[in-house]
Amino acid sequence: MDEVSVDEGESNSSIEVAPALIAVHPLEESVAVATGAELRVFSLKGDQPINLQDDSEGPSHSEAIRAISFGAKGRFFASAGDDKLVKVWAVDSWHCIRTVCSEKRVSAVAVSHDGRWLTFADKFGIVWAADLSVVRDSDMPVNRKPIPILAHYCSIITSLEFSPSGQYIVSADRDFKIRVTVFPRNPSNGAHEIQSFCLGHTDFVSCLAFVKTEEDPLGFLLSGSGDSTVRMWDFPSGCLLCTCDVGEKAELGELIGEEDHPAVTDLCASPDGSIVAVAIQSFCGIVLLTCDLSTKSIAVAKVIYFKKSFIPTCLGMSCSAERLWTVTGASNFPSSTTLPLACVKVIDGLQNCYLDSNGAGPVELENDSIPGGEKLLTKLQGSVSAAKEEKALSEAAEAVKTAMRNLLIKKQYSAEKRDFRKRSRNDKKLKQ
Amino acid sequence: MDNKPDRQSKTTRLPRKRFYRARAHSNPLSDSHFPVPVSPSQFEYSLHYPHFYPSEETNETDVGISSAAKTQPKIQFADVGCGFGGLLVSLSTLFPDTLMIGMEIRDKVSEYVKERILALRVANPGQYQNISVVRTNSMKYIPNYFEKAQLLKMFFLFPDPHFKEKNHRRRVISMHLLDEYAYTLQVGGTIYTITDVEELGIWMKSCLEEHPLFEAVPREELEVDPVVKLLTSATEEGQKVARNGGQTYQAVYRRIAAPLVENGRVSPPVN
C-alpha cells in the first residue's frame, strides 16, 4: 500500500541528529537555547548572558540535549538528553542543583508546579520521578534515586506535562496515544491510576500544551501530531473536543512541497488559548491558531511566513504571550562542520494577530530590536551572523526532518523486504 | 469457507489446527502493522458480533449508530493471549449474553480462532454469537479497544514466561501494564492469571499483590466461581499441563477503588 514511501536506507547516524530547542521563562526573565550538548542562557531581566554554574557534583552534558523545560512556575529549569543525564537548575542563580542519572536516554522532562518532583521520560517509555526536596532532618532520609512511576509500553514518550492544577501528569507517545495519569501526592510508590487516554490522533503525538480560563480552571489540553492536526481535549474524560487540520486549513499546500500531511512539530499556547503558535514540518513560518474555549473550537488566525529558509524546530512563549520565540538548527547533522547550529527569531505583537491586514499584525523582529539585542543573539546563536548561513540552516532542517521520521514513524516494509530482514535477524536461536 | 474444505474436519466442519501452524512466540516489542481501532468507539462491533449488532440498523443512518450503540452491549470479558480459543468457547455458553473477545498476537493463531468461531456458529445456530477474536498486541493497544471501566473480567492464561531477566519487560503482567488493566476493568472486576511455570506464577502474584488497585479474591469465592475451574480445564495449554500431570499456579485478583487522598490522609475507598 504505502510501499512507495518506504524509507530505504536506515541510517542510524541520522537518528543522532538533534534539533535545536528553545525555552522561555514564564515571565520572560530569561531565554534558554539548547543545541547539541550546549546549553545557552540569556537573562532578559539582567540583560546579560548567563554563565551556568554546576554545584551538583555531577557530570556536564556531553551529548545532545533532547528536552528543556522551565518548571515550578519558573523557579526551576530542567535539561536532559542523550547522555542520560537530567540536570535541574535553580533559575534565580542559574546553578545546577541536582544531576540525576537515567538508565536510558531521556526524551522528555517536566518539574511539578510545587517544585518538589522532577519527572522525566526515557526512550523505553518509562516515566521516572525524583524527589527534589532538600534533606532537612536526618530521620527522614529522602530517596535520591529516581523511581519509575508509569510506563507507555516500549514507546518513545515525546512530551511530558503537568496539568494546570498539578493533579495530573500527561504523557504523549509515538504510538498515537496521550495518557492522563493522576499524579499522586507522593509518587514514590508509582502513579497507577490512569484518569483517561486521549485517543484520536492517527500518527505520533509530537507536542502538548494546556490552556485554561477562569471559568474552566482545570483547563483543556492541546496536542499536535504527525497526522498534521492540532486537537483539543477535555483531558479528564479523554473526550476529543475539536480537530484542526492545520496543514489543510492554513493552505500550505504548495509551500511545503510534495507532502500531503506535514507533521506538526511543536506548539505553544498563551495560557487562555487565544494564541496558539504551531510549527510545521518543512514550512518556513508559523501558523497562529486561536482556541475559543467557550465553543470548544480551534481556528486558524494567521499564517506568518519567514523571509529566509527558516523552518522552526522549536517554539517558546512567556505567559504574557506578547512575543513568540523560535529557533531552528541542529547538531550532528552530516554536513555540520564545526559547531552545532542554532538560529533565533522573535515575532512580536502576537496579540494583534486578529487585526485585519491594515492593522499592525505580528512582526518579525530585526536583530537590533530583539529584547537583549545582539548580546542575546551572540549568546544564544554563538554569533550574531548565524542567520546568514542559509544553506546550513536548510540542511539542518532537512536532517532534523529525516531524524524525526526515522525516530517516530513506524517503518513500512514490503513483504519481500520483511522476509529478508527476518533472515538477517541476529536474535534467532542457533539450532544444533 | 467452502472453497477450502481440506482445512476443515469432514465431520465437525471445524478448522484443523495442523493447518494453522504458528511460532510459539511473538515479540511484543516490535512495531506492529495490523490495523488497530483509533479509539474504542471505532471498534467494529457489527463485524464481530453481527447477531448483537444487526447490520440493517447500522446501515440506516450514520448518525443513528452512536445513539443505537449506547443501548447495545459492549465487550465485558477479554481473554488476553487467547491462543486457540478454548476458554472463549467454554465461556460463550456459560455467559451467553456477555460479549467477549480473544486477543492474540500471532496472526495464524487468531485466524484459526476466527474460523473456529465461525464454524461453531454455523454448527450451532444461535450460539457462539457472543465471542470473537482480534489479532493485536494487547500490551500496546488495550486502551484502543476498551473504554475506562468497561471490562468485568480479564484472562491471562499460560502467558509466555520470558525467563531471561532482560526479557522480563515482555511479560504481559507487570506493574506498569497492570495500571492499564486496572483502567479498563470496572471496580469489582476480576483479573484471572494462571501458569504452569512456578517462577512466572510467583512474579504475577507479586505484581498483583503489590499493585494498589488490586486485591486477592478470597478462597471461598474462588471455590464457587465457575470460571476458575475453566482456567485449567478449558484451555489447550491447561489440558496439556493436566495430561503431563504438571502443577499450575493461579492468581485471581479483584479491581478495587483507588484510595481517596485528602489533606495527605488516606481515607477508605468510596464506591
UniProtKB/TrEMBL annotation, chain A:
Pathway(s) annotated for this protein in UniProt: tRNA modification; N(7)-methylguanine-tRNA biosynthesis
Annotated WD repeat ranges: 58-99, 198-243
Keywords from the named record: Nucleus, Repeat, tRNA processing, WD repeat
In terms of InterPro entries, this protein maps to:
Trm82, WD40/YVTN_repeat-like_dom_sf, WD40_repeat_CS, WD40_repeat_dom_sf, WD40_rpt
SMART domains referenced in this protein's UniProt entry, alphabetically: WD40
Query: Which domain of life does this protein belong to?
Result: Eukaryota
Q: Which GO terms describe its cellular component?
A: cytosol; nucleus; tRNA methyltransferase complex
Output the Gene3D superfamilies linked to this UniProt entry. Answer: YVTN repeat-like/Quinoprotein amine dehydrogenase
**Compartments reported by the entry:** Nucleus
Q: Does the keyword Nucleotide-binding apply?
A: no
Q: Which GO terms describe its biological process?
A: tRNA (guanine-N7)-methylation
Q: Does the keyword Repeat apply?
A: yes
UniProt feature coiled coil, ranges: none
Q: Which HAMAP family match?
A: TRM82 (MF_03056)
- Family annotation (PANTHER family): TRNA (GUANINE-N(7)-)-METHYLTRANSFERASE NON-CATALYTIC SUBUNIT WDR4, WD40 REPEAT PROTEIN 4
- Subunit composition and interactions: Forms a heterodimer with the catalytic subunit.
Purpose: Required for the formation of N(7)-methylguanine at position 46 (m7G46) in tRNA. In the complex, it is required to stabilize and induce conformational changes of the catalytic subunit.
Query: What family is reported?
Result: Belongs to the WD repeat TRM82 family.
Provide the protein name: tRNA (guanine-N(7)-)-methyltransferase non-catalytic subunit
Q: What is the lineage of its organism?
A: Eukaryota, Viridiplantae, Streptophyta, Embryophyta, Tracheophyta
From TrEMBL, chain B:
This enzyme's EC code(s): 2.1.1.33
GO molecular function per UniProt: tRNA (guanine(46)-N7)-methyltransferase activity; tRNA binding
Transcription regulation: present as a keyword of the record? Answer: no
Pfam families annotated for this entry? Methyltransf_4
Residues engaged in binding S-adenosyl-L-methionine: 81, 104-105, 137-138, 157, 235-237
Catalytically driven reaction(s): guanosine(46) in tRNA + S-adenosyl-L-methionine = N(7)-methylguanosine(46) in tRNA + S-adenosyl-L-homocysteine
Q: Which residues form the active site?
A: 160
Q: What class of enzyme is it?
A: transferase
Where does the record place it? Nucleus
Gene Ontology CC annotations of this record = nucleus; tRNA methyltransferase complex
Annotated pathway: tRNA modification; N(7)-methylguanine-tRNA biosynthesis
Q: Which UniProt keywords apply?
A: Methyltransferase, Nucleus, RNA-binding, S-adenosyl-L-methionine, Transferase, tRNA processing, tRNA-binding
Task performed by this protein? Catalyzes the formation of N(7)-methylguanine at position 46 (m7G46) in tRNA.
Q: To which protein family does this belong?
A: Belongs to the class I-like SAM-binding methyltransferase superfamily. TrmB family.
Among HAMAP family, the record links this protein to: tRNA_methyltr_TrmB_euk (MF_03055)
Annotated protein name in UniProt: tRNA (guanine-N(7)-)-methyltransferase
Question: From what organism does this protein derive?
Answer: Aristolochia fimbriata (White veined hardy Dutchman's pipe vine)
